[in-house]
Design brief:
With 426 residues, this protein is α+β, with helices and mostly antiparallel strands. It is 20% helix and 22% strand. Strands 11-12-13-2-14 form a five-stranded mixed sheet, with helices on both faces. Helix 2 (128-139) runs parallel beside helix 3 and helix 8 (336-344) packs antiparallel against helix 10. The chain is globular.
Length: 426
């Protein structure tokens, strides 16, 4: 599954490598894939069945408005929905909970019409009140939503109103190129389940992992029925899901999705090889391809190369002033020269060959060649050069002043920091 765009609280420091994407599953007939962009098969989908997927972490919260973890994002994709969505295959903006929209001539106001007769997974009616509530929640300072800043333009929030029972108007404080694509980042949440928490100032703690599944509700294809911490999440078909196939069949086809929590990548691979898992949710290591080839030859595993991924490996530094206000590193940690130096210090070509065994391409920005609509090769590049990196660091006062292993600034503060990453990413 594809991750949602990261919010603009931090700035991309180094976009290093993007790997070749693969879809991996077991015990399925291998379909024909004419291209990475167009996927077709003559096989007719069969209703029913269970899909078992491994993932390396579990949700810190079931509330996407307060948690950006990868596991929460996957859970949200399966259980929630947006007014509009960006199709990750075509990059087109598509109607979702809203069936259509119109834009004003100046591009500052969008009028969306909601689909009629939609219901939450618990049977409650979906209304414009849910949309207004979600915007109120995401902008509530007590909620401290990490996606709130991505829903502001020039620091100002969007203005959202409901002229009638099926109409939502979204007004932008200034022109914004992506337009309604901004709303792809915002799942709509149920007012009837969460308003009390918002009014009490406890929205940030609502829908924690200890929340009973019956207290959750969504507009997505599945609903949570059981959560076993540290082991698995079991989701079943949402009986009120609104989408249908071209022939009128109610979606989704699957009866159940089981997300097995497997933090160790080696154990994850073993589950796939043994048939205990049907699919990986996160990236496959390049060295795992060799281990899977015999199973591919035996017809037990399908390995489909989808081309260059749209999700790059990136490194972020938090640039918010208040974060560094009392930190002795504040004089250089947010400087552009530091980010440029680190970029020069990364040998992208060697990284692609040694770590990804050639199944990756170097990039110099957050958009990869896999995103054919938005990728541009004409971004600034920082060729591998340790000499240039040292020069840039010296320009911001970072030199080795005491002949140890660290560079220091003029006050003697060592130039070092800790990198946080998901387990298995190093």
């Amino acid at each position: 599954m594809n991750r949602q765009p990261r919010i603009l609280l931090t700035l991309v420091l180094v976009a290093v490598i993007v790997g070749t994407g693969y879809v991996i599953w077991t015990d399925l007939a291998k379909p024909e894939f004419p291209s990475a962009q167009t996927v077709s098969s003559t096989a007719k989908p069969t209703r029913g069945g269970r899909l078992t997927v491994t993932q390396r972490s579990e949700p810190r919260s079931f509330n996407r408005l307060v948690s950006l973890s990868a596991a929460t994002d996957v859970f949200t994709q399966l259980t929630q929905a947006r007014l509009v969505r960006v199709n990750r295959a075509t990059h087109e903006l598509e109607p979702w909970l809203a069936e259509r929209w119109e834009a004003s001539a100046d591009g500052l106001r969008f009028t969306l019409t909601l689909r009629d007769g939609l219901r939450w997974s618990d049977g409650a009616a979906f209304t414009t009140d849910d949309v207004l509530f979600t915007f109120r929640a995401v902008y509530d300072e007590r909620a401290a939503s990490p996606i709130a800043s991505s829903l502001r333009i020039g620091g100002q929030p969007l203005t959202v109103t409901a002229p009638d029972a099926r109409t939502i108007q979204v007004s932008y404080p200034a022109p914004f190129g992506p337009g309604l694509r901004l709303l792809d980042n915002l799942p709509i949440l149920p007012r009837h389940k969460l308003e009390a928490a918002l009014e009490a100032g406890t929205f940030a703690q609502a829908w924690s992992p200890s929340t009973p599944p019956a207290d959750l509700a969504g507009m997505g294809p599945f609903q949570l029925v059981r959560y076993e911490p540290g082991q698995r999440l079991v989701l079943t078909r949402n009986p009120h899901y609104w989408r249908r196939a071209a022939d009128g069949t109610a979606l989704p086809y699957l009866d159940e999705v089981v997300l097995e929590v497997v933090p160790d990548q080696n154990a994850e691979l073993l589950r796939l090889q043994s048939g205990e898992a049907d699919m990986f949710q996160q990236a496959l290591r390049a060295e795992d391809l060799a281990a899977l080839r015999p199973l591919v030859d035996q017809g037990k595993v399908s390995l489909l190369e989808l081309g260059v991924s749209t999700d790059p490996d990136v490194f972020f530094i938090n640039l918010r002033d208040r974060y560094w206000a009392s930190d002795p590193r504040r004089g250089w940690i947010v400087r552009r020269e530091l980010r440029q130096a680190l970029s020069h210090a990364v040998d992208r070509e060697a990284f692609a060959e040694a770590v990804f065994l050639g199944a990756a391409v170097p990039i110099w920005g957050p958009v990869t060649p896999g995103n054919t609509e938005w990728f541009s090769p004409n971004v600034p590049r920082y060729p591998y050069s340790l000499e240039q990196a040292r020069t840039l660091l010296a320009d911001i006062g970072l030199t080795n002043r005491d002949d140890d292993e660290w560079l220091e600034d003029e006050q003697g503060t060592e130039a070092r920091f800790t990198v946080l990453t998901y387990r298995g990413n190093l």
